[in-house]
Every structure is written in structure tokens, then in C-alpha cells.
């Protein structure tokens, strides 16, 4: 069964697991009624599932093994009531959270109905499917299908930094103090700037290597009333990383330095008015990266770049 939630700007569709009929005023079984307007229950038209979904619905699936990136993010989710996985894709991350009882209930949301169907197939046929609600929605609009419209932890992983920043800014009023676990793939200064703008501060930044690639994960909570603003360097490089200067940051910065240098070279060749601002921002990030690398090399002289 599906529940259609109409918001002021976007259309969110909540899909309850298993397809059993439920009343149209509750998004999670046993939860309080949704406070959104325009709630309409309907049964989706039947369609032929693809091979992956067909296999999944025939048998219960064991929790998948996560790579180091998702494993680290999962370890940050600790004993919460409701966790929201925004951009859940195949649902592997949420399956592990539930199987390890890191959250009592899970919201699996994705802007893609096709991706969400795979997550639904995996989770609804598991022992913890009745602890999951699914929503087709844009960003944090998905939280509207939850009781009281809020979650304790919100995870946004595997997206570009500009996309993550946009999701946070547009949905800031829906967070209600939720802990954020973020995994932006690019444009990290944009993500950090958005975190600060919505009144949050970073409590941890972690470099992890998964399948030969380096990733950076961030954890953030609402800022204290007396929290100072981030400096330019903290936005460019990361306040937690600057404080701890971990050795694993060094290969990350070496790669970043190489990419920034290539970007500067390309912009110098294609000189346009639009590139002028981008050039200044990129040069600032490059200079900060070089200084951080010098400090890391001083601290860890025996380690190869």
C-alpha cells in the first residue's frame, strides 16, 4: 500500500512494507498520524518486478556486508528511536542498522521510485521489515511521513557536496535537532558552509578507504548558543581534521592537491568572467591544502605520500 503526502513544494509518497492494507492516517505501523495534509491511501498498480526484486521477494535476505565507508557511518548511529536514510538506494545501509538494532525504526527514502523498490524488496521480506517505512521524496521532505515529522538521526550519504548542501538548506526546518551523518563526495566546503548556516557544528570528520578510494564522513549536531563561526580555513579543510591532524588525512590531501592544481590549470586556459570567482575560491582551497600538507609532513615525516 502507498500513502501520498502532498507538501507545499514536493510530492512525497510513503510505501508501507509488505503491501498489507493499513489505515491512511499512519505512516509507520503503531505510530501517530501524519500531520501533513492531503493524505490519500491507494494500492499501486501491479507491475512485473525486475530480476533483483523478484529474487528478493521470494526469500528473506541476510544483512549485507558494508564497505568501510558505510560501516563507519553505521557505527555512528547509536541506539536511536528513528533513523532516516535519505537517498537509501538499494537499502543495504538501513538493513544493517536494523539488524544491529542501532535504531528501532527506519525511514528509507529516495527520489527514485525504482531504487526504492529494491530497498523495499530487501527490507520488507526481512525479519525487520515491519520496522521500516519507505518514502519516494525529494530530500528531507521524506520526514513528513514520520510520526511528528521528525527523526533522531538523519543520514545523507553518497551524494555531491552541492546536493547535500541544498538538501540541508531546503529542509532545515524539518530537522528538529536531529544528528546528521553526511557523506559528501565532492565540494566539501559547500557542505560545511551549509552545516554552519543551518545552525549545526561538526563533531567528527573521518577519512576512510573503501575499495581503494578515499572518502570523508561528517557527523554534526545543533550548535551551542555560544559556538563561534567557522573560519575560512575550517570551512575549506574541516574543523575536526584541523584539530586532530590524523595521519590518514595525508593521502587525502595529496589527491586533493593534485585535483585542485589540475582545476587551476584548466581555468587559466579557459579564462572567462565566470571562472574568475571560481579561480579565487580554488586558489584559496589549494593554498590551505598545501599548508595542511606541510604540517602533516612535519608531524609524520616517515610516512610516504
Order of helices and strands: EEEHHEHEHEEHEHEEHHHH
Largest sheet: 10 strands, mixed
Quick one: CATH superfamily of the largest domain? Vaccinia Virus protein VP39
Number of folding domains? 2
Can you give me a brief rundown of this structure?
The protein has 305 residues and is α/β, with parallel strands linked by helices.
What does this structure look like?
This protein has about 300 residues and is of the alpha/beta class. It folds into two domains: about 1-230, Vaccinia Virus protein VP39 (Rossmann fold); about 250-300. It is built from ten helices and ten strands. The protein has helices at about 50-60, 70-75, 90-100, 115-125, 160-170, 190-195, 230-235, 240-245, 250-270, 275-300; strands at about 1-5, 10-15, 40, 80-85, 105-110, 130-135, 155-160, 180-185, 200-210, 215-220. It has a ten-stranded mixed sheet with strand order 3-1-2-6-5-4-7-8-10-9, with helices on both faces. Strand 1 and strand 2 (about 10-15) form a beta hairpin. The longest helix is centred in the C-terminal third of the chain and has 27 residues, at about 275-300. The relative contact order is 0.10.
Topology (SSEs and partners):
Elements: E1 2-6, E2 11-15, E3 40-42, H1 51-58, H2 68-75, E4 80-86, H3 92-99, E5 103-110, H4 113-124, E6 132-136, E7 153-159, H5 161-170, E8 179-184, H6 188-197, E9 200-210, E10 213-222, H7 232-237, H8 239-244, H9 249-269, H10 273-299
Parallel strand pairs: 4-5, 4-7, 5-6, 7-8
Antiparallel strand pairs: 1-2, 1-3, 2-6, 8-10, 9-10
Amino acid at each position: 500500500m502507498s500513502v501520498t503526502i502532498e507538501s507545499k513544494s514536493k510530492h512525497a509518497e510513503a510505501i508501507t512494507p509488505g503491501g498489507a492494507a493499513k489505515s491512511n492516517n499512519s505512516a509507520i505501523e503503531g505510530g501517530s498520524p501524519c500531520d501533513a495534509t492531503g493524505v490519500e491511501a491507494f494500492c499501486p498498480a501491479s507491475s512485473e518486478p525486475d530480476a533483483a526484486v523478484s529474487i528478493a521477494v521470494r526469500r528473506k535476505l541476510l544483512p549485507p556486508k558494508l564497505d568501510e565507508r558505510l560501516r563507519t557511518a553505521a557505527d555512528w548511529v547509536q541506539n536511536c528511536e528513528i533513523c532516516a536514510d535519505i537517498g537509501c538506494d538499494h537499502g543495504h545501509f538501513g538493513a544493517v542498522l536494523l539488524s544491529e538494532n542501532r535504531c528501532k525504526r527506519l525511514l528509507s527514502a529516495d527520489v527514485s521510485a525504482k531504487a526504492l523498490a529494491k530497498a523495499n524488496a530487501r527490507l520488507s521480506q526481512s525479519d525487520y521489515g515491519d520496522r521500516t517505512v519507505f518514502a519516494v521524496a525529494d530530500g528531507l521532505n521524506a520526514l513528513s511521513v514520520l510520526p511528528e515529522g521528525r527523526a533522531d538521526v538523519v543520514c545523507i550519504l553518497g551524494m555531491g557536496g552541492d546536493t547535500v548542501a541544498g538538501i540541508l538548506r531546503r529542509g532545515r526546518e524539518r530537522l528538529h535537532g536531529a544528528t546528521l551523518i553526511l557523506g559528501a563526495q565532492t565540494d566539501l566546503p559547500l557542505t560545511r558552509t551549509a552545516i554552519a548556516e543551518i545552525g549545526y557544528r561538526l563533531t567528527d570528520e573521518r577519512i576512510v578507504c573503501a575499495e581503494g578510494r578515499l572518502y570523508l564522513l561528517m557527523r554534526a549536531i545543533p550548535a551551542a548558543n555560544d559556538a563561534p563561526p567557522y573560519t575560512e580555513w575550517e570551512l575549506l579543510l574541516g574543523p575536526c581534521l584541523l584539530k586532530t591532524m590524523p595521519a590518514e588525512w595525508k593521502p587525502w590531501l595529496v589527491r586533493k592537491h593534485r585535483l585542485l592544481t589540475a582545476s587551476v590549470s584548466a581555468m587559466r586556459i579557459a579564462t572567462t568572467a565566470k571562472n574568475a570567482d571560481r579561480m579565487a575560491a580554488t586558489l584559496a582551497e589549494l593554498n590551505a591544502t598545501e599548508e595542511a600538507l606541510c604540517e602533516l609532513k612535519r608531524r609524520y615525516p616517515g610516512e610516504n605520500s
